[in-house]
Predict the structure.
Amino acid sequence: MPLIWAGIIMFGGSLVQGAIGFALGMIAVPLLVEAGFSLSQAVALTTLSIGIQVMFGAWKLRANIPWDDVKPAALARFVTVALGVLLLLNVEAMDTVAVKRLVGCGVLLGVFARVVAGKLVGREWPKAASIAAFSVSGFLQGLVAMGGPPLVLWMTTRDFRAQEARAFTMTLFLLNTPVQVALLFIFSQTMNLEIILMALVIAPLIYIGTMIGVRIGDGFSKPMLNRAALAVLAVIGLNAIL
């Protein structure tokens, strides 16, 4: 049953992320916790799944990677991903209800950040503010596998083409995945080889979900898909809290 639930959840999350470009972690982590996975297992499985998903995408878009922006972002995230993982290992001692509420708050915060990002007019941030955004992204990625919203906010300040924006986020997630998984594998008592094998087994579902999502995204307007996805995420977050 854990493998079946993980496959269903990751397929759905990959479908949404393929359609709108974000939200796999925000969908998968709270639903995996609801399905009985520990928080570190949910984060590890989601991180592995994101790594599998972005590996092919980053390679395909390698000519569009904005390395001048990726390098400082990756350095900041390397440090703060580790901090997020360390806090995750302590938070895991909390009771199940408290963990679900923490994750639910993270989802709602991500929805709020995405809504705010959509209303902002592009403007250049000071360097310190950019580093802060990257650091928060890494910390949230390590803690609850939800590092996307701060990056979305930051990208409103850049004049990225669509392919550059996708290549930027994919490359960052790909670079941080080995560090995050290694830390969880070494220090987490609940993270084990079974979780890694589970991610590999459901990799075809992740790929299929992503491809279907991309086709759906091409057939509908992005604003409509974004609104639908945010509504679903809000419901998931509220359900985890209440």
Q: What stands out?
A: The chain has a mean pLDDT of 83. The longest helix spans residues 162-187. DSSP finds eleven helices and no strands in the chain. Residues 70 and 80 are 15 Å apart (CA to CA).
